[in-house]
Amino acid sequence: MTFSIVTQLVVSGALIGLVYALIAYGFQLTFATSKSINFGQGELVMVSAFFSLTLITLGLPYWLVLPGGLLFGAALGLFVERAAVRLALEQKSEGWILLTIILGLFLFSVAENVWGRDDRPFPTPISQTPLNVLGVDVTPVELSVAVGVFAIMGLVEVFKRQTLLGKAFEAVSADRDAGELMGISATHTVMLSYALSGVVAALAGILVSPITTVGPTMASALILKAFSVAVVAGLESGFGVVIVGMFLGALEGIASFTLGSGWREVPGLLLLILALAVRPTGVFGKAIIRKV
Amino acid sequence: MIRWLAPLLIPLLAFPTFAADSIKLAITGPFTGGSAPMGASMRDGAKLAISEINNAGGVQVGAAKMKIEVIERDDEAKNERGALIAQELASTAGLCGVIGSVNTGVVLAGDRHLQEKGITKIITPAAGSASMTQWVGKAPELSIFRFAAHDGIQAAMVVEEAINRKFTKVAIFHDATNYGVSGRDDLQREIKKQGDKLQVVATEKFNIGDKDMTAQLLRAKSGGAQAILIWAIGPELAAVANGKAKMGMAAPLIGGWTLSMSNFIDNAGKNGNGALMPQTFIEEPITPKAKAFIDAYHKAYGVNRIPSAVSAAQGYDAVYIFAAAVKQAGSADTSKIKAALEDLKEPVRGVIATWKHPYTKWDIKDVETHEAFRREHGVMGMVQDGKVVFAHDEDKQRLAALAKAP
Asked: Is the minimum CB–CB distance between A42 and chain B shorter than 8 Å?
């Protein structure tokens, strides 16, 4: 195992790991404000990718497809919030768990019937021709994933810290009731977080589609990894999911190379069990003290 | 009045089954989903043959001409759907035969119901070895036939191709399904059988849905593999081809006939060029018969490429073989059709070949008795710019010459 092989494995793995991180970030956004997550997040990724593909086949240029897809993602996020989460939260029930799963299954059937069950290529203006950077082969498409992930996460973090709306977001995240007393509508903030989560899912779909192709099951493998990342990193830290996502991706590559391809998933699962056993709040999570 | 009617009614009462004036033929396969390119092409090829036969008046059965009536069932490539459909067909009154199945799992789940009732079935294009070997040593009589180049033939051709290209080091890639794992075993067996001329430097596996093949490819690359022998289906095959291009690996993909599936060719794009796979039919008009078939298919279904040309041609020829058996049996009775299939006297001119005595009486120890395809029916295909073409000119000339022979 030479140095160049290790770097290739780490770089390729980390790039795919960033996609896990981006989807996990979508979980974090909604968890922060509402302590709920969308278990159908993978279907949001998939349906947004299909929608963007339709825009492309209609002949729209890529720079219009991107905002179109993201807007569609935001709308889907709002739909999930209204249909599956809002009432459950008002009644302080855990109904959102089942409802988001059901909504995911529903979107899956819709996609199968509207777009068919075949995997389809996703055309992109970004080149697929590999570049050789310091002995490592990467394609510009893979690099665009990294750029996209950092850009959207950077923007959301800046929004949360620098704008008034963002501060309201943080306030509801910190303490929903106190926020309400200060005149911040918790319902609107939760809606905002679901819309943002939808945007993040749509971006993940658009970025990863040229690599994975678009099909109803495109996100089913990704979403499981994203759950692992979210659990291991904790549902608090955006920085954490990036680190854990890249680490998990690289680890999968190295395990697959050294132990054999059948062992690819094992280190990730061990990591998950270890994290749950030793640090249930996640490596980067904060222990929540609940006052009763 | 009664006295008048009675003689008229008696024949109706006595021979109710003779009232059937059509040959009921069921076509089953996955017409939706990941295997749909194969299932739908097989169905469309078969229906093309059926409409040709029906337009010419039907099949000569004894003194009368009977038309073929199609019953279509979509098994969605799901084993449990396949089992349900087989049960339904097994209890359909007056069913003459079944043509179809793409997925080995569906065949294993469903065919025993047909075999129990002795209903004649021609499996096409499912290639997994187990579909027929499951009956070895078990069924004294068998009503199941296959019309496809099974994986054993395909693996032999793949290994032969690698040896002919003077490769000495290869990697074996396969997916974790039944199909992939048994393909790996077939490949390893063939490498041994053909004199151990290939050294396997890496045996790599991946799951359905895997997109990142970097680690597997790096193992192949660092082992010095000159070719990748591969058994998987469309989307993952494309992921391997794309990963290979990314790492600048020149080693070609040589693998099962799934490398000709449209969902490999489309998703791999130019990275799929040069992939080699065994085929029984290639969409090139090398004979007048092939040209007529390709043109008719394009026209009937409004396409300019058959999604899976092998499946379409096999579906087409299977119908003609079935019709020949009905004619020879002189009856629409499924067990008589089976007996005729086991001893088909007249050669059937198909689009793949002229079929002379494709099957013989079932031998409980020899699965080849119910297999129509032999090594000489296979040719090597190669992906080139979104199409499958002949990999070797000799194959093309051999087939063209065969078609000219009387």
From this structure: no
Location of structure tokens 């041994």 = B192
Residue B8 has pLDDT above 70, yes or no: no
- A119 and B235 within 8 Å at the Cβ level: the answer is yes
Residue for token pair 């080139």 = B384
ipTM: 0.78
Cβ contact A20:A229 at 8 Å: yes
Domains, chain A, with CATH or none: 3-278 (1.10.3470)
pLDDT tens-digit map of B174-214: 998 878 888 999 999 999 999 999 999 999 999 887 888 98
d(CA A266, CA A270): 6
Chain A within 8 Å of B247 (Cβ-Cβ)?
yes
Integer Cα distance of B350 and B354 in angstroms: 5
Q: Is A119 on the interface with B (CB under 8 A)?
A: yes
Domain ranges in chain B with CATH number 3.40.50.2300? 2-149+287-373, 152-279+379-404
- Residues of chain A with Cβ-Cβ distance to B273 below 8 Å are none
Give the one of B33, B238, B246 whose C-beta lies nearest to A139's C-beta: B246
Taking the CA of residue A134 and the nearest CA in chain B, the distance in Å comes to: 13
pTM confidence score: 0.81
Residues B72/B99, Cβ–Cβ less than 8 Å = no
Provide, as residue numbers in chain B, all residues whose Cβ is less than 8 Å from the Cβ of A211.
Answer: 211, 242
d(CA A274, CA A267): 10
Å between A3 CA and nearest CA of chain B: 12
Average pLDDT over residues A18-25: 94
A228: phi then psi, degrees, rounded to nearest 5: -55, -45
Of all residues in chain B, the one with the smallest CA distance to A216 is B33
Chain A positions touching B266 (Cβ under 8 A) are: 120-121
B211 touches chain A (CB under 8 A): yes
B331-342: per-residue pLDDT in tens? 999 999 999 999
Tell me whether B192 touches chain A (CB under 8 Å). Answer: no
- Fold held by B152-279+379-404: Rossmann fold (3.40.50)
The answer to whether domain B2-149+287-373 has CATH 3.30.160.340 is no
B21: its two tokens:
């004036």
How is residue A234 written in tokens? 């904790």
What sign results for the dihedral spanned by CA atoms A130, A132, A136, A141? negative
d(CA B331, CA B102): 28
Among left, alpha and beta (phi > 0; psi -120 to 50; other), residue B29 is: left
Interface membership of B205 toward A (CB under 8 Å): yes
pLDDT value at residue B20: 57
Chain A CB within 8 Å of residue B140 CB: no
Q: How confident is the model at residue A284 (pLDDT cuts 50, 70, 90)?
A: confident
